[in-house]
Amino acid sequence: MSTDLTPVDEFTTTIPVPEDGDGMNSNSVNVAFQALANRTEYNSKRSGALTVVKSADETKASDNTPGDDSELLVALEASSTYRFRALLFIDNDGATAGFRAQMDCTVAVTSIKYSGKIFDVSTDGVFPAHRSVLQGQFSATGGEIGTTETFAEIEGTVETSGAGTLSVQWAQNTADASDTTVQRNSFLEAVKV
Hints:
Oligomer: single chain
Strand content: over 45%
Helix content: 10-25%
Shape: elongated
Number of domains: 2
Mean pLDDT: 76
Number of strands: 14
Low-confidence stretches: 9-13, 24-46
């Protein structure tokens, strides 16, 4: 028996039914359902999630002014509410550079609220969080996160009055000639609620 999943339309997929002697058991069914759950287009259409995953590393040096990440942005509809989450994998080459980030909207916003955390994986520390009624930065110094790979997490909600873009902005906390990199597979997800 084939284990191919055949899309019927944007929300329905046909799972093959076993015939006598095919040897399909509950394990086979679990594998088929897991394959279905992993289909990106299925997940995004079913949940309404807008997800962007970085395809390449992006590096900044000698720059402490947050600017848009080249890939981590999503289009939002007017008169809508979204919850969002960004996970940024960071590599800091300079001992003094640190990291700062914020969210930004090109859309007319009724409200945007979020908190951000930067983790120091070498000490299991969590650094400054920021909750913002409008936009605001949160950061960690180079002395706090050092030169190890670390990550930042941003979660919040945004209510729009007009259509536009939600983006992650980031930079070094202190301008440093060494590279600060947001790595591939970092992501931004927004879900309409």
